[in-house]
Structures are given as C-alpha cells and as structure tokens.
Amino acid sequence: MIPPLHEDLDFNCPLSSERADRLLDHLGPLAGNHVVDLGCGWGELLLRAAARGAVALGIDQDADAIAHARASATARGVTAAFETGDATAWTGTADVIVVNGSTHIWSTTEGALNTLRGSLRPAGRLLMGECYWRTEPTTAQLAEMPMTREEYGTLPQLVDLALTCGYRPLHIAEASPDEWNDFQSRHALGYEKWLAANPTHPEHAAITTKADNHRRAWLHGWHGVLGMAYLILWAPPMTT
C-alpha cells in the first residue's frame, strides 16, 4: 500500500506557484497558442496556460493523474484536453511544448531535445524543466540517491547541450533551496499523514520505512547537490 504522496503538492517538482507564473509570463502571450505538455502529470502548469487562453493538450501515461487533471479543469472552469498515453508517441506541432521533469521518457535529455525541435512551430518555445548537479556529488551521497552521476551534467553543460541541439536560450531559471525544501516536505507529508491516521495498520512499519528512506535520500543524498533548471528555449529554422 502506498499513501497518496502528491495531494499536498501543486507541482511534482521544486516549483513555486510564483515561479510557475513567471515562467508563463516569459513564454509571452499565450492566448490562441497551442501548448502541449508531454508527461504532464496532473497538469497544473498546463491548466495555468489554458487559463491564459492557450489551446492546451496534456499527455501522460498515468491514468490517475490524467483523471485528476480533468477534474481540476472542470472545477476551475478551464478548457484543456488531457489524454492518457505515451507522450513520446505524440507527432503533432505546437507553439509551446512543455517537458517538465519528463525528459527521461525519451531516455536522455539530448534525445528529448532532438526529438522535439521538429515539433515546434515557427517562433515556438520549449519550456524544459531538468535536473543538474549544483555541486559534484560524493560517493556517499550518490549511494543514497536513485540516480547516477552520469544521468545529469552541470547547469552550463545543460545549456550548452541545448545550444548543440540547435536551440537558443530565452530564459534560464533555477529552483531555490526553499522551493526544493518545500517540495520535498510536501511530498513526504503524504507518508506522515497516513502514518498518523493509521497507527495500527499492518503496513505501518513498512510505510515508516518508506518515509524514512525518502527523507534519507533527500537529506543525505541530493540536498544542496541536485539542482532543477527551468529553461525557455527557441529553435531557429533548421537548414538543409
């Protein structure tokens, strides 16, 4: 049994509401623009784009997340389409593509960048949220994390990769320590609320272990080491 871990989160990443709105501001006027969020989760960022008049489509393989996104759209009176499926199978074009913490579904960041460049309409923008190493992780820290050293580079390397793949940066932002701590705390809150409400449940010890492992991976692993970058990129026309 896994308690609901995301019910206390707005975004499944270290992103504050204020920064999310600023990122949408940096994308420019969205009214009438086609915005596609690939790996959208429960679609909070896409719903905010739709509220600004975007023609919004979100795709994610998590059926429960998509159901949550649809319910949120209805509750907020926002028009947005959500589909359950493989986001990598999408073959359309868009004015804005959002890939926030989901580049792994293309195996690598480079794979995502190369695949999506051809799906951007003229003057289109890619909003990409991606992890990077703020500092070099130690062997002990890596042992606590579910990711490898090779999985990410530094922030300069991430931006250089985007340049190599034919993009130009319009805006570069980083999650703050407060955003990271708030995200991890609110993520872990699902465990703690369940433990408090189910003190005699037969899985109480197992859930306690899950909660402790999550906190240890955060505080002994990536805390202060792993960063999150939010890049807004555009791609000049490809030449032949």
List the helices and strands and how they pair.
Elements lengths: L16 H10 L7 E5 L5 H8 L3 E6 L2 H14 L4 E4 L9 E7 L8 H9 L2 E14 L5 H6 L10 H10 L3 E7 L2 H21 L6 H19 L3 E9 L6
Parallel strand pairs: 1-2, 1-4, 2-3, 4-5
Antiparallel strand pairs: 5-7, 6-7
Distance N terminus to C terminus?
54 Å
The parts where pLDDT drops under 50 for at least 5 residues are none
Question: Looking at the structure, what is the overall shape?
Answer: globular
CATH class of the domain at 17-132 and 149-176 and 227-234: Alpha Beta
Describe the largest sheet: 7 strands, mixed
The helix/strand order is: HEHEHEEHEHHEHHE
Q: What is the number of E strands? A: 7
Quick structural overview:
Helices cover 40% and strands 22% of the residues. With 240 residues, the chain is α/β, with parallel strands linked by helices.
Give a description of the structure.
InterPro entries: Methyltransf_25, SAM-dependent_MTases_sf. GO terms for molecular function: methyltransferase activity. The chain has helices at residues 17-26, 44-51, 63-76, 109-117, 139-144, 155-164, 177-197, 204-222; strands at 34-38, 55-60, 81-84, 94-100, 120-133, 168-174, 226-234. The chain has 240 residues and is α/β, with parallel strands linked by helices. It has a domain at 17-132 and 149-176 and 227-234: Vaccinia Virus protein VP39 (Rossmann fold), CATH 3.40.50.150. Helix 7 (177-197) packs antiparallel against helix 8 (204-222). The model has no long low-confidence stretch (mean pLDDT 94).
